[in-house]
Records
---
Amino acid sequence: MTATIAAQGELKAKINDRRVAGLLWRFLRPYRGQVIAVFGLLLLISAMNLAMPYLIQVAIDGPIAEGDLNGLYLIGLAYVGLIVAIFVVRFVQLYWLHTIGQSALVNLRQTLYEHILRQDLAFFNRTPVGKIVSRISTDVEELSELVSTSFVMVVSNLITLAGIIVVMFLLNWRLALIGLAVIPVILWASLYFRGGVRHYSQLWYRALSDFQAYINEQFNGMLVVQLFNRQPVSREEYGEISRAIYNAVIGLRNAYTNYALILQGLTTIGLALLLWGGGQGVLAQWATLGMLVASIEYLRRSFEPILQLAEQFTQIQTAFSAAERIAQLLEEQPTITEPTHPVRVDDFTPTVRFEGVTFRYEDDEQPVIREITFAVEAGQRVAIVGATGAGKTSLVKLLARYFDVTAGRILVSGVDLRALSFADLRRFVSVVPQNPYIFNGTIADNLRLFDPSITEAQMRAACETACAQSFIDRLPGGYDYPLLPQGANLSEGQRQLLALARALIHSPQSILVLDEATSSIDTETEADIQRGLAQALHGRTSIIIAHRLSTIRDADRIIVMQHGRIVEDGTHETLLERDGLYAQLYHRQFAEV
Amino acid sequence: MASSTLPPRRVADARWFAHYVLHNRLPMLIAVGAGIVGGIADAMQPFLIGVIVDHITRGLSMEQITADIGTLIVFSVITLVAFYGQRYFSGLVAYKTHHEMRNDIFENMLTLDQRFYNRFPTGDLIARLHGDLQYVWRMLAISVNRSGSALAGLAFTFVLLATIDLTLTVIVFIVLAVSTAFQMVAGLAITPLSEKVQDQQGVLAALVQDSASGIQTLKSFGRERDAAAAFHAQNVKLRKTWLYFKRRYEPVGMLPQAIAQTAAGVVVVVGGYQTLTGQMTLGNFTQFLLYLTFISKSLLEIGMIYQRTMQTRGALKRVTPLLQEAEIADAPDAVAMPHVRGDVEFRGVTYQVGDKTLLKDIHLKIPAGQTVGLVGATGCGKTTLVNLLARVMDVTSGEVRIDGVDVRRIRLDDLRRAVTYVPQNTFLFSRALHENIRMGKPNISDADVEAAVRISRLSNDLPQLPDGLNTLVGEKGVMLSGGQKQRVAIARALVRDPAILVLDDALSSVDTRTAADILGDLKHVLRSRTSLIIAHRVATVKDADWIVVMDEGRIVEQGTHAELVARGGLYAHMVERELLTDDPLPAEPTGD
């Protein structure tokens, strides 16, 4: 299963601690003063917690032994005071910490999001969307857990443990030595069993993610499963994955049970040792009863932090691998970058020039575009035709600078694309793809594209020109009509009209580059598209990858591509006259029906 | 794993739950029994420590004290063994119950039809089968594990402490019980707040998903900065919701501990006073102090069990729809039809969804071995018609018959073996190419696969694929182009050698030249079987034996290509339009 392979890959990637620390430091640094203050408070809380058994010892050895009632009440008062103080300080500390942590995470998420938007198309081609989403949601939430819970737990547990050891030695060093004798063994056992627990919890996580991936696929493909009687195979596969979860979780349970068993045994041995040694101590008078009772109380309290530390290890491990993945993503650099000193274009003329352009995709050996040279004058409408794989779409991608040319150059308004600022580039060239993407939200959201300053009048004007207004008017709510994911409640033609209107709003002066749709479009919208296109393209420079006869006929010029080269260039009539590839393609279509 | 012998219940209620738990009753009884023993033995520990303290106070000999410690160790060993059994068996109950539920639910889901799958988004179904069902083991793990020991321990402690000092015991228990109850109630009250946080996290994730998917559009119009601003607004809102939740959650979490500590304060003062006045021994005083932790821990566990039970009840409500009975299933009197000739007949078939009539009174007879083309505008009912034949759904009225038998009376397995239906949207599993063709049928020979690959022209592409037929196609076949995927679907149908073959617009993404080649080869294959071919292009169906033209749920014309063109009706119009407007050139795959 691919999911398993991916998960294994992620597990094997060794965590680079310096990289993780660098990431955390980068986002916590603005708050370093506050972080130190918060840990100061943590120290205070631990100290107050430790003072409580001490008060009991003082009560037993002092007022209780001496029969001093007032002294007892005083200690009682101090005890209650401590409880209130701990409550208040802890709340302040958590409140503060959460505020810092969340502010840092807001920055992290924002940085990540903007970083992702900056990446080039090659990045999006090789990175599945699901992965990007989980970096910025699941992984950041892991870090959130780390910052808001695990760090506090670990630090306060360490402080408490250290505090207990110190206080016990101060109280009575002999009792301390006896009681604490088991602590190193407990620490060792925790480290030892951590391995098993981690192993099984990783197996478990992997099985769970396999499970989710599997049921996702099955639910999506259930129709095919049933139509082809695939149920026995699905049942078997599901059984295997389900069994893997069961085995992993049982393994985890066993590891935990063994660990808990050892831990409980060791704590009992520690207590027994303390009682036995303490009993002798009290009898021999090198310890008081109060000291013994307080030591018992301290020792019992010391087991809790160790247990929690052991539990936190797994959580921290998970958070660290999440941080590692985030750091890796932040290290990605786009290969298509904005020039540091872009050429300023004061008078933009909508012309395009390809000069000896050759292009090859990263991993491919063969170039898809070979030494193409042509020029488009201002106001010209150019249709590009050619068979599958002729390089039409790649040509568009180069013009939008989704990719950079391998050789040669492309000039817009007389300036090399690579010398333009991104803002200018987007202003000068806009692409309407074959399958326009529809964002979540309403029709208006899709026209505005996050720009709240676009007015309804602007939208209306663009939709009129693009012939989208009539279908929008028929939708309940008009511009506020909510669209399903991928615009599923619009027809393909309607989606195209919407995309056309979108281009008119956001790039009023640009050179329009259109990739026409090919597949079946309902007759109704087809007429709209013809008209919309004619109106939108009126007086504009445009380059259209043409599939429709009408588009080709109306073009000022037709460029015919084959195997990444331009083989013919002219008007419909001249090309037919020439009787070359274009004429051949054109006639074959009519012969077919 | 076949877990259930009883007829399946259709509601995930207490009885359904009990059915699975009782299936594992032996380990559950052992766990609870071990819990009771362990709980009491564990509760002995503070008592024994108190006794030792008293013995030391009274200056008894070291021999006596050593003997006391011996007793302590004996009880500890009992606790240890009991707790081991408790954890071991409770885990078994929890995970096995969950495992069995998970398997039975999926088993049922394999039978549910498209009406069900269209009603629930996939993400929602995953959340129910994966997320909601997790509550089962979370709840069982703690309740089977801790309920016995916590209750037994508490009862034992109460009796023990009451014999020392009834008033103090009652005070301590009341204070701790109230704080636990408070935490339980407050914890449940806060749940909606945590759901708000999750919702907001979902909003953020959806935004990322959306902008990463539409990145080309965003970049093309230079909209990145405003997109970042929109993200920032939601991002900040997440912080706000999160902090709002945490600032209410933390005090609720901290208060019980503070109350428990207050109870300790009461014990120190009251118990200290009684020890001072000689009403209580120092050992008893120590016992009270030590039992405080024990009591609050046990009460907390009971509170947690209550909380988890409530949550599980809520979660199981969401599991209930997954247990529903399949609407399309074998009739009690279903007939086996291992061999089908291939006569198909639609008799007065009407299909309605709500008040919308998608098919109205369709009569169509297709003799075995004929090839029928179905054409018509989008939404005219072509796909619905073939869906009724394959029983993706059932007719509202009328009958669809194969070899004279109503399809609703044919065993579903046999029906689907007889009818191979290639739906409009190709679905590939993330497995090897050949597995996507065989689809788990082991008796398909390599030669059959090869022949199908040849006819579907997949053979043209094999050299370009990294592992030929062993290539992993990736999630939903992302490794392949749209046309390649459709051709895999055709090969998948051909290897099954069905009596009736249905292709629903199965060549739409295949370029025209290849499509023509495939159709040419298919002609030979189709000669020996009944086939229904739905197409948007006239070119695809023009050679069929019979062409049926549909419009708004009715058959408006039928005949051969020549007849229909001569007739000058809707079909003839389609032919004309195709001449004028169809692609002059092969379509370009979207993945280019």
Note: Residues 215 and 221 of chain A are 10 Å apart (CA to CA).
---
Amino acid sequence: MLNNLIFVNTVRFLLLVLVQVLLLNQINLFGYVNPYLYLLFIIIYPFTGNKSLLIFLSFLLGLFVDFFSDSGGIHAAACVSIAFIRPFILKYSFGISYEYNTIKISSEDYMKQFIYVGSMVFIHHFILFALEIFNINHFVLFLNSILFSSIFSIVLILSTITLFSRK
Amino acid sequence: MQQILFFFIRNKNFLLFTLLFSISIFLTIQTHAYHKNRFVNSSTYLTGSIYSLKSSITSYFSLKKENILLIEENSRIRKELESYRNNITIYAIDTASIYSKYYFSHAKVINNSFSKTKNKLTINKGINDHLKTDQGVVTSKGIVGIIDNVSNKYATIQSILNTNSQINAKLKKSKHFGSLIWNTEDPYLVQLIDIPRLAPVKIGDTIVTGGKSTIFPEGILIGKVKDFRLTEDKNSKYLNIELFNDMTNLEHIYVIRNQDSNEIINLEKETNDAK
């Protein structure tokens, strides 16, 4: 069971990085909008799993994406941050009970899913674009990037969760 | 002692987060300076080989367009050659004996970005093909950028669509110099700043490289003037340049190697040291 879990997460990690850098980073809708599906790894990492391990794995995940997109450490910084605050977001979107029940995200109702995924994606994108653009002169570009990329990412992540859930 | 140990164990997540977050920020700040990002870049062996695998598949889709580009370039070069033949008698056809300060080698773009504020490209040649940092990169239509990082087989290029990029350029007609920058708004438009107020500028004027550095030879095409205005302090003009190159769709590029660049750089360094 444990080995199976490690295997599934490793495959998911590698698959998401490859899909992200080879497919999704090439979309550039309207010139600057890209969805970031690789967050799915952090979002659906087992809720009761080791938190320190998640923070470390998120750092690796972000760093891999950074290597491919020549962006220094911006993805790593954003990923580490959402991995760290994930317990708080989980508590406030699914209630205190998430720690004791082995709930599955795909079996929760859509509103709760949306709040959870939405806050994770929004915080990630906020840190990501703040570090990338890093210039007050491009404030409109910053807001646009956050807004449109967030919408795109949230839709993609929620549909992936629905598509791949085993019911 | 036990207290300290307990403190660490209790806050291990927070400490780990702080450590990894600072590493990321450190790496980010490094990339804000030109060719300082030695650790995280896509010219490494692993990322390079994955990108060239991708490019070997996707390059089939643009074969038609690339062929047309090559034919266009060939016909233009042929025309130039004919005009030379008519003017001078060539004694030797041996091209190896023609001396040129600049060597051109070709490479293929295996990854391209244009939607960020600091855009980079990755190409499939590196140190093994005599590529070094600070060599210029062009296509048959115009400039692309400057080599930033090299590994044995791959290299990354700082695109002209990068807020760190600043390239010497001039008006082809009046020879007034300025710096080429990018305001991140449009991948088809770059900006030429520091053009003197009195310089005559017309919409449609051609902009070429200035040749004031060892990176690009003089007169490489950049784009044409789309519109222009005076800056707020009324001392210089701010020009919007429409690029000849389609930066969103690059495939084959040429790397320029200046034979004399070492000599020039050494000389300049000696002059500076002597002061």
Note: The first helix of chain B runs from residue 2 to 10.
